[in-house]
Amino acid sequence: MEILDVLAGMAKTGRLGPVFCGAEWSDVTAALGEPWDIGAMSRSRKWPRLFAYGDLELSVCRCRKVSLICIQTWRDVVELPPSVAGGTGIFPAGLKHADVVSALDRAGCSWEPCPPLTFGGQRSLVAIPAQANFTFEIPGGEEPVLNVMGLPGDGHDCNVKRRQNP
User: Which letter, b or e, does each residue of 36-57 get, where b requires 16 or more Cβ atoms within 10 Å of its Cβ?
Assistant: First the structure.
């Protein structure tokens, strides 16, 4: 499988194998193994935490549900878990805007520009089915290159539940 097919599939379904917003962390680790623990997302709290499987980064809530998903594509290569991405899971980076748009169109995944995240040296688009965001860097006068692809959170906030049940 090609990286553009992986990203277009995620943009259309909101999933990468067992990974989706709201997934139980135990299900993800059972399927993909133990990730690299990047650490807490706040200095004052242990949770939420950021975990990574190569360039697949997952924010996990204190209730152990996946709350945000992104794939870093700004490095020289993009590494994803082979069990969900196919082959070695290592793909070339440097994905051009036109190639991403073409892959989304081939997958039947509608998209539109995302004006709030398009400014200065970046351009952004949102894939409608899963509200996936693709943010591109625009290197001096060149075609935009994909920097990150992310799936939005589902609005889950287990702190709300805790505040309601003191």
Answer: eeeeeeeeeeebbbbbebbbbb
CA distances from 140 to 94, 98, 116, 137, 146 (A): 15, 17, 21, 9, 14
Q: Give pLDDT tens digits for 40-70.
A: 666 777 778 899 999 999 999 888 999 999 9
Q: Does a structural domain hold residue 163?
A: no
First-to-last alpha carbon distance for the chain, in angstroms, is 49
Span 27-37, mean pLDDT?
92
**Alpha carbon 30 to chain centroid, angstroms:** 20
- Confidence at 163, pLDDT banded by 50, 70, 90: very low
Residue 165 domain-assigned (yes or no): no
Q: Which domain holds residue 48?
A: 3-155
Bridge partners (DSSP) of residue 72 are 148
| Count of the separate structural domains present in the chain | 1
The reported pTM is 0.88
Q: How many residues does the chain have?
A: 166
In a domain, 24, yes or no: yes
